[in-house]
Amino acid sequence: MVLFEKHGMDEEEFFRFFPLKNYNFPLHFHRAYELIYVSDGQIFVSIDQKEYVLTKNDLVFIFNNQMHEFKTLGYSDITVILFSPELIGDFFINYKGFIPEDNVLHVDREIDFKKLNSIYSQKSFLYAVCADLVNQTSLTPIGQSPQTKVLYKILFYVEKNYSADCTLKDVAKHLQYDYPYLSKLFVQVMNMTFTDYLNHYRISQACYLLKNIHQSIGEVAVNCGYNNLRTFHRNFRKITGQSPKEYRIIN
Questions:
Q1: What is the CATH number of domain 15-141?
Q2: Band of pLDDT at residue 11, cut at 50, 70 and 90
């Protein structure tokens, strides 16, 4: 399964983690909770327009439906953990509709993910993180503007349809919004056009597939919404600075 695609959309318990090196992922959100743990290097993380720089043994706790992105700063070795709210049901019930003032925690020692091999060890680990978060920061009610709610709908559409034809006109028709309004709103909030965002999203998914799934470069291109291999190569190099083949070998 592709890294973020549809994780946590269904109300069922799950726990997944993904080791990643030198990885970037554009602004997105999902129903799942997300932890990002830095084993080495540095990453930049933006969560609801709050900006953090994480270094070794830092852990960021992203609540469900918080809009976020992360970027490698030079070099990074991270693990992304995605898990359903139901896995920490008591915490979810008590803090549903709240977000942390500060999403970042510092871990005293390296996390051994191999030990998180049972539902009990997973829940124990997650509740310990929840306890640290509650002890170290305050949690405040969520406030969303009408514009933010519309942007969430756009990003959700991209998440579901990036592997097929996906244009802002398609989004406008699906959401029954005026196309010029969505175009202007997207640029104002995201500081990039919808097309640029879609390409970044698709290439981020392609990076994950190239490193973790045994598919040809052509298959990866098609699965990420590129029917033209030349366009895929051009966008991949523009965004990553490498060809797909180089990325698969070097990173």
A1: 2.60.120.810
A2: low
